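Please fill in the sequence for the structure shown.

STRUCTURE ENCODING:
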């Protein structure tokens, strides 16, 4: 009896140790930002369900609602935006257009803070962002995976402004 209990204990220990395999979290890669060109003509002539800073919906709040963020952006850095709904496999995105003169005065951390703040606002509406100047230079992106756990895994990419990428901080 004692031997069978000992053997049974060894069996249970072996089975429990062998059957436990480490679980690895599999996080899908964060998608790269859209490579679609900036369409500045949509600022004056929005088409379809594209929304700009000049779009006003009389019936309800327009999504994404970036007007408050635009009004509160430091030194009126955010000049305009174009919001595109999700189409096919492309997630919804907002192209922000910034004042290049003000952007160039910011150091890397100030730019990062701006992108992170507006990216967080847009993320709450299910949008990624790209930041441009009026010369159509892409300055930064904020892209997220919206259907992952933890929710909304995001990545910020900033273009470097000098060889060190630190603007005037360095």
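FILLED IN BY: designer on duty
SEQUENCE:
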């Amino acid at each position: 009896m004692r031997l069978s209990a000992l053997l049974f204990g060894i069996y249970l220990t072996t089975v429990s140790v062998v059957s436990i395999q480490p679980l690895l979290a599999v996080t899908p890669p964060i998608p790269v930002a859209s490579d679609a060109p900036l369409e500045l003509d949509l600022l004056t002539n929005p088409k379809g369900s594209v929304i700009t800073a000049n779009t006003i919906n009389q019936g309800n709040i327009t999504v994404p609602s970036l007007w408050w963020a635009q009004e509160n952006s430091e030194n009126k850095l955010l000049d305009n935006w174009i919001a595109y709904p999700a189409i096919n496999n492309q997630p919804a995105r907002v192209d922000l257009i910034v004042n290049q003169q003000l952007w160039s005065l910011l150091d890397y951390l100030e730019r990062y803070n701006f992108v992170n703040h507006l990216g967080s606002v847009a993320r709450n509406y299910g949008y990624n962002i790209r930041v441009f100047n009026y010369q159509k230079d892409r300055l930064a992106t904020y892209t997220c995976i919206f259907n992952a756990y933890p929710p909304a895994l995001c990545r910020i990419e900033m273009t470097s402004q000098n060889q060190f990428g630190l603007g005037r901080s360095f």
